[in-house]
Amino acid sequence: GTDVQSSLYEKYESEVRSYCRLIPHELTKATNAYVHTSAGIRYIDFFSGCGALNYGHNDPDMRNALVEYISGDGIAHSLDFHSESKGAFIKEFADKILLPRGLDYKIQFTGPTGTNAVEAALKLARKATGRVNVVAFTNSFHGVSLGSLAATANQHHRGVSGIALSGVSRAPYADYFGREVDTLPWLEQMLSDPSSGIDPPAAIIVETVQGEGGLNCASAEWLRRLRALATRHGALLIVDDVQAGCGRTGSFFSFEFAEIVPDIVVLAKSLSGFGIPLAAVLLRPELDVWQAAEHNGTFRGNNHAFVTARLAIAKFWSDSSFSASVEAKSRAVGAVLDSLQHRTGRLRKGRGLMQGLRCQKAESAAEIQRRCLEAGLLLERSGPHDEVLKLMPPLTIEDEVLEEGLSRFSEVALSVRD
Ligand code: PMP
């Protein structure tokens, strides 16, 4: 009620930022796809910490392993020293993720956020190629520090106009002019022409699905041609898999469907599997140009995160059944969105378990989100005008809970007109 609301607002008067404005209650506990609040409300979570909770809240195996590790005085902070938990994670990641996919990468643990890892990737590309410029796409989101902001497109996310560092050229994303217009000949021409005004890039950084940009998708064929284009122009291809990676689109990496091998891959969000910050850059071995202390930071790698991250890989990625289950759930979401597209004319967007619906008007998206929250369904919006409703349940969501969430979403989406 309003009493709870106003007292909470008083309590958090000094809190400046945004999700806290959506639900006037404190979140208290959560298991898998359910989140409970201080007001006794149970939400179905179609947000998953913006992709940081792909394996749901409080996976019992990860929780128990972490409690056991801490109870046994396992090392918490080790910086660059080898630790048992770090070694065990690296081995599991190599055995279950890299080797079966024929991928040969070194792993560089960076500061704990996606932003930190993007920053490290951009810096590495510049160091390894001796070039400065970077190509990034329209509607991209790569982070909030000044370098990663330069690669980020959305003016609103930039916050303060003109503060981003320079050295980024903007190219139109795969579907920027609609699905019929091929954007790569444009980029090819700009990079081939010495008087186009674009300096030869150290890297091209791309999301295969633009999570913050409104669930815009690149096709397998577009990504394959982008891979070839990067090679042709001596630029490294960086895939920012911070949001689309760790299984979000069905396969561990979001680019697997295109059968491409990026030079650098950025991972964060769900890498730890448990909502603990952990981020990394995967780099082709020959790109390891760092000398000691050229890229450091106190919180690179986190041993508690390594414990849960190893277990997440062991539990969910030892065979293909998890991928198959994510794909089945993605089809269920897609079917509901197809039907809504048919009935409302709103466009279905996205891929895997990062799909959504684009409203004609930003206000109707806001109204649908508000009513979904009232109906006990937690979800976010994205896109240039926040006009895209984003359905991102945990990949581990039970089928019945997914179905219930989708039916609440459908009912609300049909009840609001554009
Ligand atoms: N890259 C992408 C694709 C993202 O979606 C995000 C976060 N939304 C980031 C980078 C930045 O990650 P973080 O918020 O952990 O800094």
TrEMBL record:
Query: What's the domain of life for this entry?
Result: Bacteria
Pathway named in the protein's UniProt entry:
Amine and polyamine biosynthesis; ectoine biosynthesis; L-ectoine from L-aspartate 4-semialdehyde: step 1/3
What Pfam families would the database entry show? Answer: Aminotran_3 (PF00202)
GO BP = ectoine biosynthetic process
| Coiled-coil blocks | none
**The protein's Enzyme Commission number:** 2.6.1.76
At the top of the EC hierarchy, this enzyme's class is transferase
Question: Which cofactor is recorded for it?
Answer: pyridoxal 5'-phosphate
Read off the CDD domains from this record.
OAT_like
Write out the entry's keywords from A to Z: Aminotransferase, Pyridoxal phosphate, Transferase
Q: Which GO terms describe its molecular function?
A: diaminobutyrate-2-oxoglutarate transaminase activity; diaminobutyrate-pyruvate transaminase activity; pyridoxal phosphate binding
Q: Which family does it belong to?
A: Belongs to the class-III pyridoxal-phosphate-dependent aminotransferase family.
**PANTHER family referenced in this protein's UniProt entry, alphabetically:** DIAMINOBUTYRATE--2-OXOGLUTARATE AMINOTRANSFERASE (PTHR43552), DIAMINOBUTYRATE--2-OXOGLUTARATE TRANSAMINASE (PTHR43552:SF2)
- Which named protein is this? Diaminobutyrate--2-oxoglutarate transaminase
Species the sequence originates in: Actinosynnema mirum (strain ATCC 29888 / DSM 43827 / JCM 3225 / NBRC 14064 / NCIMB 13271 / NRRL B-12336 / IMRU 3971 / 101)
